[in-house]
Amino acid sequence: MKRILAVLFVVAMAFTMVSGCATTQEVQKCQEMCAMALDRAQAVEEQCIESAMSAEASAQNAEAAARRAEAAANKAESIFMQHMRK
After folding, report:
1. Residues 57-69: tens digit of each pLDDT
2. Burial, 71: exposed, middle or buried (Cβ in 10 Å; 0-12, 13-18, 19+)?
3. Handedness of CA 17, 18, 23, 29 (dihedral sign)
């Protein structure tokens, strides 16, 4: 009886160790997948930051162009008004 219990205990321990190893491998897979997802997210974040900076620069250029256009319109209006007075 003791031998049977000892054999069953050894078999149960072996199954536990094998299942523990399989779980460790799955955890490593999950960690690798999480690391890859984090790397991708960081790359996307960097792209978004670059895009935002580019958009901000474009907006500043557009504002400068609008100011120049408004100044030209004011100058044209002023010249027109001078000619209207004559």
Report:
1. 999 999 999 999 9
2. exposed
3. positive
22's CB contacts (< 8 A; 6+ apart) are: none
For residue 60, give Cα distances in angstroms to 20, 31, 55: 59, 43, 9
Q: Residue 59 and residue 82: Cα distance in Å, rounded?
A: 34
- pLDDT of residue 85 exceeding 90, the answer is no
C-alpha–C-alpha distance, residues 43 and 77, integer Å? 51
Separation between Cα atoms, residue 9 and residue 3, nearest integer Å: 10
Q: How far apart, in whole angstroms, are the C-alpha atoms of residue 57 and residue 51?
A: 10
Q: How many residues does the chain have?
A: 86
